[in-house]
Amino acid sequence: MPGSDAAPPGGSEDPGRSGRGGSARxxxxxxxxxxxxxxxxxxxxxxxxxxxxxxxxxxxxxxVTVAEGVExxxxxxxxxxWPSARALAAALEQAGPGRLAGRRVLELGCGLGLPSLVAxxxxxxxxxxxxxxxxxxxxxxxxxxxxGLRVDAVAAAFDGRDPLLDQQRWDLVLASxxxxxxxxxxxLSRLLPRVTSRRAAVWLxxxxxxxxxxxxDAQRDTWxxxxxxxxxxxxxxxxxxxx
Length: 243
Prior knowledge:
Layout: E1 23-27, E2 36-41, E3 48-53, E4 62-67, E5 70-74, H1 83-100, E6 105-108, H2 114-121, E7 127-131, H3 134-147, E8 152-155, E9 170-176, H4 182-195, E10 196-206, H5 212-219, E11 223-230, E12 234-241
Parallel strand pairs: 6-7, 6-9, 7-8, 9-10
Antiparallel strand pairs: 1-2, 2-3, 4-5, 10-12, 11-12
GO molecular function: methyltransferase activity
Keywords: Methyltransferase, Transferase
Protein name: Lysine methyltransferase
């Protein structure tokens, strides 16, 4: 989903903000960085309740290091639960334990980390959710604790050579709405071969970003690509390594 690693202007409305999208909201406890709401997300195997910022527009901007000794303030796009993340989580739920149990899963630009939580509930292990924003990963960690799920939430940016991402090879890499520009797309192209196992898959949920067709075409020498539509105007692109 759009975390600090993503920039979603032009994307669709967050369905949960208006009470649509198979979820229900109510006031919640204090969150890691401010007031929270509880949102119950309806899933076939049973609802998953998460906490998320009560007012995403009131969340402070994130200080992001863009070069040595240089910081910029980036909008906290991670504070919303975006349609691509909801759609990816639903697709993982449909895959179920039969395809996820015991698999090593890495989520990039996780934002609030809903896909990681669903993967962990289906038995994936380990599950590591990454975002460049420490605030985002604090919310993911809080939700994992609340739900009794094993998700490691780590501050790491996929568009840099963060050593945390190279510690092992992953069976499944998840990302939602991260192809928001040429720099991010090129960074993802460089990263995926480094962090995936020989039989790995990449599940990329995308709301039709302009950069996506070019990026998919560039992957076809290394990966097979299959695409299917998901709810909320999102496509799921499934990439698998070629033999």
